[in-house]
Design a protein that fits this description.
single chain, elongated, two-stranded antiparallel ribbon, CBS domain, 21% strand, alpha+beta
Length: 234
């Protein structure tokens, strides 16, 4: 099984700024390039932080309403310096949460979730910026065709990993939803097959309708004869 990695999905034509970039310069860059954030790098191209639209809007939200109709929002004391900042150094969220080009989609997604960010600067082994990967980039794995997903499950998961021939289990894939039907030798293989199928890039959901010949899970024996239906939720 081969997972798509960050280097295959990231944007390499990165727009970045130095610490002394002004508020206006950053706002122009976001508008001109149709992006929502820029990495802030030092003189050696190592990421120091990220300035996003949210960072810029914090200043606007803290201003008084010219018409006097809206109440003034007073930023928390920890956010006040950002609201008052005029350069990238003060505006940025730091330190930068970065990704490595060899990370899988799962690793990058987990890093985004932990840090509650929408994008990650990607750095090489020396820590220099080489790209940016966003949530939208990671979601591209779900654009894989159903045929590609089915072939990977049939060939890599069932045959090469679990030793299950195509004649034993059929794989149907519709818009990323996988259905397994057939009979396997051992009951214990079923949850393993489901788990591995779920890990294939582009899979949205997995349901199984698998029978088994031998119950090797230690559960009480059922009536004689087989195959028997696995009592297992997908």
């Amino acid at each position: 099984m081969r997972h798509r990695i960050v280097s295959e999905l990231m944007t390499t034509d990165v727009v970045d700024v130095r610490q002394d970039a002004t508020f206006t310069e950053i706002a122009k860059l976001l508008a001109e390039h149709g992006i929502t954030a820029v990495p802030v790098v030092d003189d050696t191209d190592r990421p120091l932080g990220v300035v996003s639209e949210a960072d810029l809007l914090r200043k606007e939200a803290s201003r008084l309403d010219p018409a006097g109709l809206l109440p003034s929002l007073h930023p928390e004391s920890a956010e006040r310096p950002k609201a008052d900042a005029t350069t990238a150094e003060g505006l940025m969220t730091s330190p930068a949460v970065v990704a490595r080009p060899e990370w899988t989609v799962v690793e990058a997604a987990q890093a985004m979730e932990r840090s509650r960010v929408k994008r990650l600067p990607v750095v090489d082994e020396s820590g220099r910026l080489i790209g940016v990967v966003s949530r939208a980039d990671l979601l591209r794995v779900f654009l894989r065709g159903d045929r590609a997903v089915r072939e990977e499950i049939t060939g890599d998961v069932l045959m090469r990993t679990l030793g299950i021939p195509p004649t034993a289990v059929t794989v149907h894939v519709v818009e990323g939803r996988v259905t397994l039907r057939g009979t396997v030798e051992r009951k214990s293989v079923i949850p393993v097959a489901v788990r591995l199928c779920r890990s294939v890039d582009g899979v949205v959901d997995v349901s199984e309708h698998l029978d088994f010949k031998v119950d090797d899970t230690g559960s009480p024996a059922a009536d004689a004869g087989y195959p028997r239906r696995a009592q297992l939720s997908p």
